[in-house]
């Protein structure tokens, strides 16, 4: 990256202005306030983040397609001029942002981690990008992702491997791995991500940050070829705290007429303080579904220990199992995921030249989808509906349900995916992430929050999910847990 020129802006600073290193440590709300009060200029914010990126990004490869520093500083100067005229676009005014490389960005290459799209420059923004731009953000590049977002390990043949923020020899998780690492290393103040099979949750857990998968329809995913049947994936926020994630959700959420199933509710509630009492709240601990899921030794013990933070809030925690055969849920998942992936990428795999450029897991996924019959899909959607009703029955007894956010700790960055866990073979490239499919298939709001660290200092997290469309309540309990645990205050050793 080219050197950042010195600031030539003349900004009124009535109070002490944070220095460059301090700027990147500010939480989103504090950074927004410092910019709005003109205690720090947008140029100074951009300089601070570009310096942080120059220092750490070469070690971890979290951000890609970075834009020229001179152009970014020019845009920052424009934001400063707007403030001088009394024009503030929104709370993200002057915030550097790097949308996930699955999200369309007008004028900036969007590869989806695939050689088949290495030069693709969209003409319009995805809704989440459009909304952060409108709120004043400046796009500095993209965050790295696996090819077409498949596989919870961020590597691809366009940009390479994204490495864990706590141990660069380990995987960052995925598919929002670049975003999670960028947050942990202060390369971004907040970040967008997306989630089908834990892509907001697994990388958050593995990098000690927060990810939030919103309710079905909370954040519109447009433009899209299909706006009715694709109901597995959703975009959502990531941040270094629950409050910052909620603040970003207040920008991302809201009805969009291009997305007929998007929720028409005022997202301003997510920008309000999250403090709430939870004495007497009932927490159901699903664990490994009674031994059904394979987990790495030590993982369940760590997550179980983290449950004490709920008890310190006055909650009751009780182990529970859903009245549902979990293998049926996995078969349901394979069918619905195969249907969606084959629809989205089938044309790529059908093209002989393009097929040679993509990873074998994508080819396998498409082939699985193309074998499905109408009867298979009907049975899968019935199984999904039955699963939702099984969870709804649990929510008559519990206010929230909790699961681990992954089944293994971060593994070697050079490994494509774990072939076994605790001696149990994984029969597909994504079976090792089965723990995340329950909330996805039910379309329920789910927060991933840090649970602590293993003996090697590797992070792990919890999933907290609640009833349909109770996004605010889930964010509130996640915030209360975060305050009790203090886990998000633990910084990457790379920063020391």
From TrEMBL:
This is Amidase. The lineage of its organism: Bacteria, Pseudomonadati, Pseudomonadota, Betaproteobacteria, Burkholderiales. One of its GO terms (molecular function) is catalytic activity. It holds the Pfam family Amidase. InterPro entries: Amidase, Amidase_dom, AS_sf. NCBIfam families: PRK07486.1. It comes from Azohydromonas caseinilytica. Residues 44-475 form the Amidase domain. Signal peptide: none annotated.
């Amino acid at each position: 990256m080219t050197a950042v020129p010195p600031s030539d802006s003349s900004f009124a600073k009535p109070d002490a202005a944070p220095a460059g290193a301090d700027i990147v440590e500010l939480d989103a709300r504090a950074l927004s306030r410092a910019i709005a009060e003109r205690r720090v200029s947008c140029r100074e914010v951009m300089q601070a983040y570009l310096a942080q990126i120059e220092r750490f990004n070469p070690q971890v490869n979290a951000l890609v397609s970075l834009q020229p520093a001179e152009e970014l500083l020019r845009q920052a100067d424009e934001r400063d001029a707007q403030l001088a005229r009394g024009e503030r676009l929104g709370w993200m005014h002057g915030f550097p942002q790097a949308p996930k490389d699955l999200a369309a960005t007008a004028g900036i290459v969007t590869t989806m981690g695939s050689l088949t799209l290495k030069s693709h420059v969209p003409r319009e923004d995805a809704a989440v990008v459009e909304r952060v731009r409108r709120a004043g953000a400046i796009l500095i590049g993209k965050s790295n992702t696996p090819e077409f977002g498949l596989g919870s390990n961020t590597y691809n043949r366009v940009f390479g491997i994204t490495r864990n923020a706590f141990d660069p020899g380990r995987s960052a998780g995925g598919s929002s791995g670049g975003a999670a690492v960028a947050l942990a290393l202060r390369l971004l103040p907040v970040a967008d991500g997306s989630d089908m099979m834990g892509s907001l949750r697994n990388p958050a857990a593995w990098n000690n940050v927060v990810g939030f998968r919103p309710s079905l329809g909370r954040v519109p995913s447009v433009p899209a070829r299909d706006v009715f049947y694709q109901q597995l994936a959703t975009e959502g926020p990531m941040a270094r705290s629950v409050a910052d994630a909620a603040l970003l959700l207040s920008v991302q959420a809201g009805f969009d007429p291009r997305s007929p199933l998007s929720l028409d509710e005022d997202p301003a509630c997510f920008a309000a303080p999250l403090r709430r009492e939870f004495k007497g709240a009932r927490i159901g601990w699903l664990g490994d579904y009674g031994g059904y899921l394979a987990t790495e030794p030590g993982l369940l013990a760590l997550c179980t220990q983290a449950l004490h933070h709920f008890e310190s809030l006055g909650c009751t925690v009780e182990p529970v199992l859903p009245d549902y055969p979990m293998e049926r849920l996995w078969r349901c998942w394979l069918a619905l995921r195969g249907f969606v992936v084959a629809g989205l990428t089938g044309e790529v795999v059908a093209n002989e030249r393009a097929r040679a450029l993509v990873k074998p897991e994508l080819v396998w996924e498409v082939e699985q989808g193309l074998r499905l019959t109408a009867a298979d899909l009907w049975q899968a959607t019935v199984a999904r509906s039955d699963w939702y009703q099984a969870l709804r029955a649990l929510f008559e007894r519990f206010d929230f349900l909790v699961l681990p956010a992954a089944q293994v700790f971060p593994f070697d960055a050079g490994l494509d995916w774990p072939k076994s866990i605790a001696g149990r073979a994984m029969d597909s490239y994504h079976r090792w992430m089965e723990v995340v499919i329950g909330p996805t298939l039910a379309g329920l709001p789910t927060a991933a929050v840090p649970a602590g660290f293993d003996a090697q200092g590797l992070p792990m997290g919890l999933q907290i999910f609640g009833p349909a469309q109770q996004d605010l309540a889930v964010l509130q309990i996640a915030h209360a847990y975060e305050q009790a645990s203090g886990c998000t205050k633990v910084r990457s050793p790379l920063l020391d």
